[in-house]
Specification:
The complex is a heterodimer. Chain A is α/β, with parallel strands linked by helices. Chain A has one domain: Amidase signature (AS) domain (Amidase signature (AS) enzymes, Alpha-Beta Complex). In chain A, 38% of the residues lie in helices and 13% in strands. In chain A, helix 3 runs antiparallel to helix 4, helix 6 runs parallel beside helix 7 and helix 11 crosses helix 13. Chain B has one domain. Chain B contains two helices and two strands; from the N terminus they run ααββ. Chain B has a two-stranded antiparallel ribbon. In chain B, a hairpin with a 5-residue loop joins strand 1 and strand 2. Chain B is flat and about 55 Å long. Classes of the chains: A alpha/beta, B mainly alpha. Chains A and B meet through helix 11, helix 12 and helix 13 of A and helix 1 and helix 2 of B.
Chain lengths: 460, 68
Amino acid sequence: MSDAIAYATIRELGARYRTRELSPVEVTRALLARIEKLDPVLHAFVTLTADRALADARAAEEALRRGDARPLLGVPIAHKDIYLTKGIRTTGGSALLADWVPDQESTCGRRWQEAGTVLLGKLITHEFAMGLQFPGHRFLPARNPWNVAHIPGGSSSGSGAALAAGLVHGATGSDTGGSIRGPAAFCGIVGLKPTYGRSSRAGVLTLSWTLDHTGPMARTVEDCALLLQPLAGHDPLDPASSRAPVDDYAASLGRDVRGVRIGVVRNYFFEGIDPEVERAFEEAMATLRRLGADVRDVTIPSLAATHSFLLILLAEAYAYHERDLRAHPELYGDVLRERFLAGALVTGAEYVQAQRIRSQICDETAAALVGVDVLATPTTPRPATPFAQAHDPDFGFPRSNMPPFNITGSPTLALPCGFSSSGLPISLQLAGRPFEEGTVLRVGHAYEQATPWHTRRPPV
Amino acid sequence: MDTPLELTLEELRERIQAAGVTIPDHRLGMVRKLLSDALVHVRALDSRTIKTVEPAVTFVPAGGARHE
């Protein structure tokens, strides 16, 4: 299979399907072969659904013959393995659920299925969207296609690795403290964390109710826009789901960025930053200026207290896992078990105070987004971490550039903006006002089209 | 007396006992750092001077409540 097919955009795939140059069955068979060849090293997939994929592909071919013009028809995708799939095991990357076969489908999974996608399988996740698999775990961790000695980021680790390696054309991710954007950054792909409430969490394993987001991951901003479209919209099965109107995301990409006000958040996001990341970020801002954007500095002082979000995450995660932690502690991964148990040690008062700090951060971020249309920061202060470092139990939870926008629920896009001297991807983070996914996609797309980063391929 | 910003090992052990969970000794350092880092800003917070931000609950005529 040529790289041109493995790395084709969704729009290119659709065009070639409709001119009969390619067929969904042909592409699906080629990707299954590519997965068989590359995944023994990358470990992106935890379950391959070859029969289902071929059945989906045949159905897509039939639909194409009838003139069906849905943009995701015949597009090969896979789900992060915390998305419940009816009749297909959903492990959560855990020994606890290693053989669990749900009898329900996530809303996101159902919506992509109804859009005509081809399900290739389930992608490994950090255990319960939080814990990197340590040696001896029931499942192997995914590896970064740019350098297999480095992590692909997490927790949507398999999604990031599979997209970077050209094994799928779209994937779901979830993001509680950066789990869509981190793998997007480390794997040199694009990830969108939509506004909290924009994309349903129904049928997705919970990590933290008030911080969890679902969303698409892809290789280009346009692919992300196309994949978001069916996910966006009210779902009565998710209590946090919004009834806000849904935009036409692909249509928003056609506009340039002249006059768009971009605020670079100068506090918090540059602490401890790698000089190569800082240089790539500043060059990205220069590119956006050349494209006509009005780039200016802003500050959000309360972000200094961002790390208190972990009290919310830990307390909510413990509430969700308490019964299983008490009944089957041995089925939780080493280190993750103790991190979840730490949630039992957060007092009610501390949880409330962390939520009050959260309200302050939300207020100040909203105020900053009155004067500008989009906030820009580096997605991560450093490129992908080596496994040797990540597998140190004391590595812990380093301060991160991504949780501020889980706290605020803002739509946030991560996309490539360069490479380190060691060949690892560097990423730009763009955040917007609630439900203005179209604006962050528009700015990201304009930047992407002016730069070559999304065209580079890893040495797989 | 002001609460120290850092969670002491003694306080951690008290919390573990109160919560009725078991955390092995070789993981206490990791858990203490995890919680200490997360608690720093909460412990520095002065409820009397911070702008009032209340966890609120709103009720709707049709029934049900929402926390906001």
